[in-house]
Design goal:
Blueprint (H helix, E strand, L loop, with lengths): L5 E7 L6 E7 H6 L2 E4 L6 E7 L3 E7 L6 E6 L1 H5 L3 E5 L6 E6 L1 H22 L7 H15 L5 E3 L6 E5 L3 E6 L5 E5 L3 H8 L4 E3 L5
Parallel strand pairs: 9-13
Antiparallel strand pairs: 1-2, 1-8, 3-4, 4-5, 5-6, 7-8, 10-11, 11-12
Helix pairs in contact: 4-5
């Protein structure tokens, strides 16, 4: 058993962002299903033996955060240098299986790639949080006045959509929008000049 062939599996946990690596013997994979779980306990790669005809892998994806399923021939999974399974959303490889020499460095590179994806997807909520807070406070003040915020269609029903560097006032009846910039001191000064705000809607 000392020379028993081993296969390495690796992916990046979509929850904690760390590389997950574990080896399973070819004998064990041929005999039953296998599972490779992250230390955080929030994700696990599953390998199902489909009657020896195919293997099905259920892979947590550290790139898009979803879970993908792929099938492959036993020969490709159990022997040879190995293979990678792609994320259909990004077209990037999100899981590797095969020889330790190939899988381990590939998954370490994947871990760095996933960290970059996370940084791109998690920008600051607002361009300037202080300005945004002041703009929202001023809008609240304007809204408290009689007919402080109305639409050109005659409706006084509206909703607020807060964006990265602006606030949209949206009429609930005609759907018209009024965008209030909320990124600079000048934006705040401009808003403070208004006693009332009118969404440019269509008159009924």
């Amino acid at each position: 058993m000392a020379n028993e062939e081993m296969r390495m599996f690796g992916y990046v946990c979509p929850k904690c962002g760390k590389a997950v690596l574990a080896a399973r013997s070819v004998f064990a994979l041929e005999a039953s299903n296998a599972e490779v779980e992250c230390d955080c306990g929030e994700s696990a790669l599953r390998v199902e033996n489909l009657d020896g005809q195919k293997f099905r892998l259920t892979v947590p994806c550290g790139i898009c955060g979803g879970t993908h399923t792929a099938e492959c021939e036993p020969e490709r999974l159990l022997h040879g240098p190995g293979l990678g399974f792609g994320c259909p959303e990004t077209k990037q490889i999100c899981c590797y299986a095969g020889n330790r020499e190939r899988v381990e460095p590939a998954v370490r590179e994947l871990e760095i790639l996933c960290q970059k994806y996370r940084q791109e997807e998690e920008p600051e909520a607002f361009l300037d949080s202080v300005i945004m807070y002041e703009v929202l406070s001023e809008l609240k003040e304007i809204a408290s006045r009689p007919d402080g915020i109305i639409c050109g269609c005659g409706s006084s029903r509206y909703g607020i959509e807060v964006r990265h560097a602006a606030v949209d006032l949206v009429c609930r009846d005609c759907g018209a929008k009024l965008r209030i910039p909320a990124a600079t001191d000048e934006d705040l000064d401009q808003l403070c000049c208004h006693y009332k705000l009118v969404i440019p809607g269509k008159k009924q």
